[in-house]
Each structure stands twice: as structure tokens, then as C-alpha cells.
Amino acid sequence: MAWDTPTRVRYKTMVQDGYSKRHAAEKLGVSEETAQGWLKKGDRVQKTTGRPRSIPDSTVLAIIQWFTGHYERRIFSPKQIKKEFNLKVSRPTILKALARFGYHYHVPDCKPGTSAKNRLLCWIFSIANWDRPLWYWRNGIYTDETIACTDMLRRQRLLRARGERQRLDCIQFTFHSGHKSVMAWAAIRYNYKSELYFVSYEGEGKGFTQQKYAKQILQGLLKEIFEDLEKGYKTPGTYWCVEDNSRMHGKKDTVRNKGICNGIRIKCHIKSIDWPPQSPDLNPIENIWQVLKQLLRNRKPAGGWKLEELKVAMQDIWENEISIERHINHFIDTMPERIAKVRMRKGGPSGW
């Protein structure tokens, strides 16, 4: 039987699309006799030689159908899949069989991807700021909160194919209990890092509300940071800060919050610039949190953390292992590159 080469396939396709045999042959630069021979010979239909596969395609398709739509099944290890389907093969054989259909183990996302609207806002932000010099980004104060859990489990891995990343059964949704986690706030700037502040949930309202954020952060730490940095400057506004669009930051005035947070920002001379939503890869402090949590996982005791031990460990890592030159300055200096990549990808992720 004839072998299907790219030129032969193109010739047959062109003939099927309405080209004359002569015109198709001229287009591809082959003789008409050779092309006629291709049409007389059929496509290759003989089966591949060699021994049969250890895991036939029908079994692999059954496995894929079994875990599709179930997150708890997608995270099964090859050993668990082997036991579930009574397979008598090795781990690499199972991985190769799934790879034939495009399925591999990946670290899942913890939330759905950026919406089309927010992606557009990121693109607009990158266009408006693509020509900012490096010193501009070095004047920024980047703030954010992070949550650390007492168990500090490593991210799970699950089976998925290309194009399935945003499926709901491929997302590792998280829930943080106040009894097993702590929330910390910090701010960084070029050649500067603030103290690591553990927020307090005490007071009216559940969780960390706008009133608590205004009292503990805006009227407390952030106000002191701006006062210290702007000493000696005749005009305020030399420095600016980044706050994400979390509801507790109260950057949008509503009837319910009565503009409490924005009023305090004006009173305390805190200049908070507009920042696109769902853009953690643009804020360099997110990379600092990743480093801190990885160092925490490396320290994790066998039985897990206690809340006070977790706070002590986070404080020690923040003060002694998070380096201003190696971590903070390095990530802030990547801001022009991040903006350029978001602009080039039309609001897509920067890769940071």
C-alpha cells in the first residue's frame, strides 16, 4: 500500500476541493503521470506491525471517560489508576498510554482564569504604561495580603489535556478556615520591605472587613510608610501604592461602604493607583509570597504547624530569608518586562 506523504496528501486534498488533476500537479510541482499514480493507489490502511499495546486504546478511553467531570478522580496517581482498572503494567506504561491521547499531569489553578472583560482592562493598562521608565516602578509601594495554612500542603497534580485548564473539574478550589490559617499583610518597595503584619479579625463583621482594613492598614502601617518615605519632599504624591481590587480594600465607593476607605486615603495622603483586576502576575509582591510559602513548606514539621508556630516561622523567613537585593529588587525590576508581555499578549498572562 502507498505511504501518505505531505505532498501526496495535499494533491489528493486539492483534487477533492475542485482543482483539476493537471492544475493540482502544476501547483505542487510534480509531473502529471506521478500524480495520476497517486490517485490509482489507495491510502495506507494496513495495521502497524509489532506486538499489541499493553494498554489498548479502548481501555485508555474508558479511563478518560471515568475521570472526566470528577476532580477527585483526576488527581488519582498512576498507582491508584492501576488498582482501579486492575492493570498489570508499570507506571511509565500508564503515563505513555495517557500521553497518546494528550493527557498529562499538571498543577491545577486555584481559581478560574481571567475573564474577557478583565483581560481587556489588563491590556488597556499595559498600553497606558508600556513606556514607563524603571525609576517609576521603583517608586511604587506594592501591597498585598497572603493566607498561610497550618497544613501547608503541596499543590496537587491532576490529569488534563490541552484546552481543559479552565474546566471546573480541573480547578483546585480552596477554602481557608480561620482556625487553621493566618492572614498576613506586607508592603515592598525598591530597597525596602515593611514588617510582616498579621491582621486581626476581632471586631464587628465576619472576616477581615473594610472597616478593619481601614483601621489596621490605611490608618496604621500604610500611613506610617507614606509619612516616612515622603519626608523631605516638598510635594506629596512622589510615591504611590498598589492595592488589588479586593472588596475589603474599598477602592470603589458604594452606598454600603460610604466611601470610608477612599476618604481615609485622601486624609492620609495615600495615593493608590488604579490597578487592573485579576492580575496577580503584574504585582511583584505575589512572587515574594510564592518564595515565602515555598520556604515554609520546606520547614513544615511532620505533624503540621500550630498557629503560633506558623506565625513565628513566617516572621523568621520574612526577616532573615527574604532578601531585599535578591528577591524584592529583582522582582520589581522586572516590571517593564511584565508590562511589555501583557501588551504583546493583549492582556494575557505575563508569565510571572
From TrEMBL:
Residues 141-300 form the Tc1-like transposase DDE domain. One of its GO terms (molecular function) is nucleic acid binding. The lineage of its organism: Eukaryota, Fungi, Dikarya, Ascomycota, Pezizomycotina. Pfam families: DDE_3 (PF13358). InterPro entries: Homeodomain-like_sf, RNaseH_sf, Tc1-like_DDE_dom. This is Tc1-like transposase DDE domain-containing protein.
